[in-house]
Write a structure and sequence with these properties.
Elements (H helix, E strand, L loop, with lengths): L13 E2 L1 H11 L6 E4 L7 E2 L3 E2 L9 E2 L3 E4 L1 H4 L8 E9 L13 E5 L11 E4 L28 E4 L9 E2 L10 E3 L7 H9 L4 E5 L3 E7 L3 E2 L10 E2 L2 H12 L2 E8 L3 H11 L5 E5 L9 H6 L16 E7 L1 E2 L3 E7 L4 E6 L3 H19 L11 E6 L5 E2 L5 E9 L4 E4 L8 H5 L3 E5 L5 E2 L4 E6 L2
Parallel strand pairs: 1-19, 7-8, 14-17, 14-18, 15-16, 18-22, 20-25, 23-26
Antiparallel strand pairs: 2-13, 3-13, 4-12, 5-11, 6-8, 6-9, 7-10, 19-21, 21-22, 23-29, 24-28, 25-26, 25-27, 27-29
Helix pairs in contact: 1-7, 4-7
Length: 449
């Protein structure tokens, strides 16, 4: 973390958005790899290349329910002149002791079952009479209901070339192929592939554990009755959901009252399950800004077992709107990163997207290109010009139309406008030197979803 000294009073360095983010990402390090069971590894980043120990499929198998035949035996077959073959038995998926198909013979075969020796192709059951001696059928009779269907004769009404309806051994992946490469995020398809090649565990960087807590004596839980002067705690819900969306395992802590000692104790209790702590509220210059009060001097603590051990949290002013007051540092014996965000709902969410999300994804071990939200250039679609304070990078809510390449502002610039935020899918970025953006101007947008 930067060595810039923070004072509660007096002149303070104003950080740019880029400087603050750079300081965070220079401090945060990817989590150490661990071996996890497949389902526990969902959402994690692979840290090693995975090679294929056996081919997929591991043997030639049927892609249809039908009959395994020799191509020569069904050459020229038609409904008028069907090929009549002797059925020598069934071949089911997973069945051991395969039959052999000789000249003039066929075996009933099910989808996924191994192609028996001697057979060259599979004739779909719909191309046959199903052994009933009549016209084409639409399906097979269940073996349990009609075991005699696995014997007798079958009439084939269409020819089949060699390898027709056969999935060749290794047609998906071959032995020694690279199944997945390091850096891959394991979703359902990747986990399916790992299971298919026989991997029960995999080495990954675990999903970061993020603890989110709001501060403020005015906050109460949704579902409870509001008293005068109280509001519902929405920030902790928003940021916990955002942390999960970023790929973390997120824990929400109930709102902490405006008491520095209570906050310090709560943070200390949470360190055991946190790779990253996020607080919201209490970072400005008010008399009740408890996060700043609790953590500004915590690094001077002599307690080597609590949050004072190895701690240093710095509170900063950023050249941005919303989100000017920010805090960042590490706390506790494990030097757990802590990001202290402003308390206004829009400020806290914008700050999360710009600073916390990249930190979470860095902890995951994702490559730099996947740490940040995607961005785009768009034409501003607005009834009037957008104003922005000089010297600050402003982030306004908007809806982005990828097809038209336009972005439309949603709501105003107020940092309390939760409803507008709920309808936005992008942030409109107005740089520090831009004080006005006219309708039709090209602007940068950060895509949120």
């Amino acid at each position: 973390m930067s060595s810039t000294t923070t004072h509660v009073t007096g002149q303070q360095h104003v950080w740019s958005v880029a400087e603050h983010l750079e300081d965070i990402l220079a401090t945060v390090r990817p989590l150490e790899p661990i071996e996890l069971q497949l389902l526990d590894a969902q959402g994690c980043v692979l840290v090693e290349d995975v090679s294929v120990p056996l081919a997929l499929p591991p043997f030639d198998n049927s892609s249809m329910d039908g009959y395994a035949v020799r191509a020569a035996d069904v050459a020229g077959a038609s409904e008028e002149f069907p090929a009549v073959l002797t059925v020598v038995g069934d071949v089911a998926a997973g069945q051991a002791g395969r039959l052999r198909v000789g000249p003039g013979q066929a075996a009933r075969i099910m989808t996924g079952a191994p192609l028996p020796p001697g057979a060259e192709a599979v004739v779909p059951v719909e191309w046959t009479d199903g052994g009933l001696g009549e016209g084409p059928v639409s399906g097979m009779r269940a073996h349990s209901a009609a075991p005699e269907g696995a014997s007798g004769e079958v009439r084939v009404h269409r020819p089949a070339e060699a390898r027709a309806h056969v999935r060749a051994k290794g047609s998906d992946v071959k032995t020694g192929d690279r199944a997945l490469e390091a850096g891959t995020v394991l979703g359902p398809p990747q986990i399916a592939l790992l299971a298919a090649i026989g991997r029960g565990t995999v080495r990954v960087r675990p999903r970061p554990r993020v603890v989110v807590m709001s501060t403020g004596s005015e906050l109460i839980q949704p579902g409870e009755e509001l008293a005068e002067g109280q509001i519902y705690d929405s920030n902790s819900f928003a940021l916990t959901a955002a942390a999960r969306d970023a790929g973390a395992i997120a824990y929400r802590v109930g709102a902490v009252a405006d008491d520095a000692e209570t906050l310090r104790s709560t943070i200390e209790d949470q360190l055991i399950r946190a790779d990253l702590i996020v607080t919201t509220g209490g970072v400005s210059v008010g008399a009740y800004d408890v996060v700043k009060e609790a953590l500004t001097s915590v690094g001077d603590s002599e307690d080597e077992t609590g949050i004072g051990a190895g701690s240093g949290v710095e509170f900063r002013k950023l050249a941005m709107q919303p989100g000017k007051p920010q805090g960042f540092g590490t706390i506790g014996p494990e030097h757990t990163p802590l990001l202290a965000l402003p308390g206004n709902p829009v400020s806290s969410y914008v700050s999360f997207e710009l600073f916390v999300r990249p930190a979470v994804r860095t902890l995951m071990g994702l490559p730099a290109a996947d740490v940040h939200r995607p961005s785009a250039r768009a034409v501003l679609k607005s009834a009037k010009a957008l104003s922005s304070p000089a010297g600050r990078r402003q982030f306004l809510r908007g809806t982005y139309d990828a097809e038209d390449g336009t972005v439309t502002p949603v709501g105003g610039s107020g940092s309390h406008l939760v409803a507008a935020l709920a309808h936005a899918d992008a942030l409109i970025v107005l740089p520090e030197k831009t004080t006005s953006a006219e309708p039709g101007a090209e602007v940068d947008v950060v895509l949120l979803g």
